[in-house]
Write a structure and sequence with these properties.
By secondary structure, the chain is an alpha+beta fold. The chain has helices spanning about 5-20, 25-60, 70-75, 205-210, 215-235, 260-270, 285-290, 355-360; strands at about 85-90, 95-100, 105-110, 115, 140-145, 150-160, 185-205, 250, 280, 310, 315-320, 325-330, 335-350, 360-375, 380-385. The protein has two domains: about 5-100, no CATH class; about 135-155 and about 195-385, hypothetical protein PF0899 domain (hypothetical protein PF0899 fold), CATH 3.30.2320. It has a six-stranded mixed beta sheet. Strands 5-13-14-7-6 form a five-stranded mixed beta sheet. It starts with a helix and ends with a strand.
Length: about 375
């Protein structure tokens, strides 16, 4: 019995020839009809087998039967691979086949400890919530530099006794009247301010730095922000020349309302031969300022819908939680100086302890500065209650 398409087709041709010559029997005609059906069935099966072979060549057959580009090339170049969108694979000689392929993360356990990802993944980085205080007083003081670790200066006080002098009436030495000029007085006090170093450290493994290229910049930025915040703190709390501790700052008691108290403090600053630069408030006290109303219920500072008018008696309001609640500082802060001896900087090393052997890096941020206050009498500390 014929077993291949070629043998079946030869048998079909012979039966067809007998039919044309008119010498075929009824059995020949039935056999011919059966052969035609068999041929069609076999052709369909062979076509399906060819298609299957071609698909095998794409997804895992021998190299010579693979289509180019490979399935892997096409899969990893697909925009929809991560979302599981059906991926269209072109196969020679057949319709495009839709393969619903979902990418799976490939992670191995590295001998160093942390898993290393073999496939590049989307890294959204680290979301950082700013925890550092924004500079306020730092924007009001005088900033400079120094190449020495200490600064000395002479604080001079002057008593002005200038007066109108009448004409002398008697010319005798020492015994006349009129014409005698008063003496104005000076007093001198020597002051010294020393450099202070501000620094801190952070430790991180080399693996963490290698796997997160942005991590070094993030750490250095935080360390430098920490230096700036501490420098701002020193302007308030330095033991000798911080605003809260320096001797010579004027004091204004509470006078009926916050507004009247600030107005009285303003007057003291002007009497000290200075122009008020700012009113510094704690944010808690700023609530009372911005919510204050007149006898008709109208807000002085603009009301809750609009941004508050950040001024009192024409002086800008500055808010910081470094200012003690219940107090305000009014004055000219430009005579408060911060002189930088060493610029803020970062250094990375593995020479600390056994860090070299353990692949640990120490990142240090450091700066040095001198805090000094030349005319604290031009600042007034006012009680708000």
């Amino acid at each position: 019995m014929p077993t291949t398409i070629e043998q079946i087709e030869e048998k079909q041709a012979a039966l067809a020839d007998l039919l044309e010559k008119g010498i075929s029997t009824d059995d020949d005609k039935a056999a011919l009809t059966g052969l035609v059906g068999t041929i069609e069935t076999l052709k369909s099966a062979v076509g399906a087998q060819d298609a299957l072979d071609q698909m095998k060549g794409i997804v895992g057959g021998t190299p010579e039967t693979k289509a180019a580009p490979t399935l892997a090339d096409q899969i990893f170049a697909s925009d929809g691979i991560k979302s599981g969108t059906p991926f269209k694979v072109p196969a020679p000689g057949m319709a495009r086949a839709a393969l619903g392929i979902k990418a799976q993360p490939l992670v191995t356990t590295a001998t160093s400890g942390a898993g290393q990802e073999l496939l590049t993944r989307t890294d959204l980085g680290i979301t950082v919530t700013p925890d550092f205080r924004l500079p306020t007083l730092m924007n009001l003081v005088t900033r400079g530099t120094s190449d020495a670790d200490s600064i000395r200066w002479v604080e001079m006080a002057f008593t002005n006794n200038a007066a109108v002098v009448t004409e002398a009436t008697v010319a005798t030495g020492g015994g006349g009247t009129g014409g005698l000029k008063p003496d104005s007085q000076n007093s001198f006090v020597e002051r010294t301010a020393n450099s202070q170093t501000i620094a801190h450290l952070k430790y991180v493994t080399r693996q963490a730095l290698r796997n997160r290229g942005y991590l070094m910049g993030l750490i250095e930025g935080e360390l430098l922000d920490g230096l700036a915040e501490k420098a701002e703190d020193l302007l308030w709390n330095d033991a000798n020349y911080g605003v809260l501790n320096v001797s010579g700052v004027q004091v204004q008691p509470f006078d009926t309302t916050i507004q009247r108290t600030i107005l009285a403090a303003r007057s003291l600053v002007i009497q000290a031969r200075a122009t008020p630069q700012a009113v510094i408030l704690n944010p808690i006290d700023a609530i009372n300022v911005y919510s204050a109303t007149d006898s008709g219920g109208w807000f002085y500072q603009g009301g809750p819908v609009d941004a508050p008018v950040a001024r009192l008696w024409g002086i800008p309001i500055v808010e910081t939680d470094l200012c003690p609640a219940g107090e305000a500082f009014v004055g000219d802060f430009s005579t408060l100086h911060i002189d930088v001896v060493e610029d803020p900087n970062t250094v990375t090393t593995n020479s600390h302890l056994d860090f070299f052997a353990r692949n640990v890096e120490a990142i240090r941020a450091e700066m040095a500065a001198i805090i000094r206050f030349e005319k604290p009498g031009q600042v007034v500390r006012a009680a708000l209650a």
